[in-house]
Write a structure and sequence with these properties.
Elements: E1 7-14, E2 18-23, E3 26-32, E4 35-38, E5 44-47, H1 48-54, E6 62-65, E7 68-69, E8 72-73, H2 76-89, E9 101-108, H3 114-126, E10 129-136, H4 137-145, E11 155-160, E12 165-171, E13 174-181, H5 185-199, H6 206-216, E14 230-235, E15 242-247, H7 249-273, H8 276-285, E16 287-290, H9 299-307, E17 311-313, H10 320-330
Parallel strand pairs: 1-9, 9-10, 11-16, 16-17
Antiparallel strand pairs: 1-2, 2-3, 4-5, 4-6, 7-8, 11-12, 12-13, 14-15
Helix pairs in contact: 2-3, 4-10, 5-6, 5-7
């Protein structure tokens, strides 16, 4: 008991696009999941937003890495350095003579394999975690939205993250039916890059495509509140001469159509497998959207029209999984059965 002051508790949403860390119920870090490394020394030069500023702009001596792809760790060493750096930035080691005993709860995709789960656990332990607990992202999102996951009622959550879309029906503290598809924000960004290349003969980077997605991203050709068009500049892929193109939101809805259709198919597939009693609860309660993809304009309306069940965008969908992991950490005794 004398050494309890040396322990720290962190709730981490280790996302493909962004990492969010909660401590004592508050966000202490919200940064892009990217790290810049010196190619000669293999030491980290920058993390998060600072590293993102270097992305696609670095020289041969610097390499920017996004350690997570499709919701799972793709570069083990970079992931370990990034997590360690983020924990340090969050202030976990501040004012400690000895390294504190860090208890972590981390959200992971529900479709993760045992190897992928082991990679997250090992990276976290190597980064300083002593007690590492994992919770599936749909369950974390449901907790973050405020759903009573222990109730004998069916609730359905669709979490559209950077690397994956997690779809799950939840009842009595468990995932009754779930699906995880590798379609998310990164795929939407790639779709926009490909569209501009094919339709406008203009080559744009990942950062510019992401800005387009955020500024005028839509899944409907007609919106009640239309965003202004956006001018994009870049090299002509045929001549390398500089050109510019004015992009309108209906163009983005058309280029995202194929990816959104995959999400619709997955939602219908999960609903087909849902037991009738839980299905009736879902029809009554509606389906909840979370994750950064939920911010795409017109998404809730499109999905509602497609599935004939009301879709609700949660409050602050970007941080729903993070809030849920924080809640699981704060009430770890109550929600022990949700974690592994």
């Amino acid at each position: 008991m004398a050494f309890n002051f040396l322990s720290q508790e962190l709730a981490i949403d280790l996302g493909t696009a962004n990492t969010v860390i909660y401590q004592n119920g508050k966000i202490v870090l919200d940064e892009p999941s990217i790290i810049a490394i010196d190619n000669n020394t293999r030491k980290p030069l920058a993390l998060g937003q600072q590293a993102k500023l270097m992305h696609e702009k670095s020289n041969s001596g610097i390499r920017t890495i996004r350690p997570l792809r499709d919701g799972v760790i793709a570069d083990f060493d970079a992931a370990e350095m990034m997590i360690r750096g983020f924990i340090k930035q969050a202030g976990s080691h501040r004012n400690f003579l000895f390294t504190p005993n860090i208890k972590m709860v981390i959200g992971i995709p529900s479709g993760s394999t045992e190897v992928e789960i082991r990679a997250v656990r090992d990276s976290s332990e190597h980064a300083g975690g002593r007690d590492v607990f994992l919770i599936f992202e749909p369950m974390a999102a449901a907790l973050g939205i405020g759903i009573d996951v222990e109730a004998p009622h069916g609730n359905m959550v669709v979490d559209i993250g950077g690397g994956t879309t997690e779809i799950a029906v939840i009842s009595l503290g468990g995932l009754v039916v779930q699906d995880s598809i590798r379609v998310g924000g990164d795929v939407f960004t790639a779709d926009i890059q490909q569209y501009l290349k094919q339709q406008h003969n203009i080559k744009v980077g990942e950062i510019t495509a992401e800005k387009i997605k955020i500024s005028i991203g839509s899944v409907l050709d007609e919106l009640d509140e239309e965003p202004e068009s956006m001018v994009v500049r870049g090299p002509n892929i045929l001549t390398a001469h500089p050109i510019e193109a004015e992009i309108f939101y209906p163009e983005i809805s058309r280029c995202l159509d194929k990816s959104i259709s995959k999400i619709e198919s997955s939602i219908l597939h999960v609903l087909e497998q849902t037991p009738p009693e839980l299905y009736s609860d879902i029809v009554e309660n509606g389906i909840f959207l979370s994750g950064g993809g939920a911010l795409l304009r017109g998404l809730a309306k499109r999905l509602t029209d497609k599935v004939n069940i009301k879709f609700h965008v949660s409050d602050d969908p970007l941080h729903a999984v993070g809030r849920g992991t924080c809640k699981a950490l704060q009430y770890s005794d109550r929600y022990q059965f949700l974690m592994r």
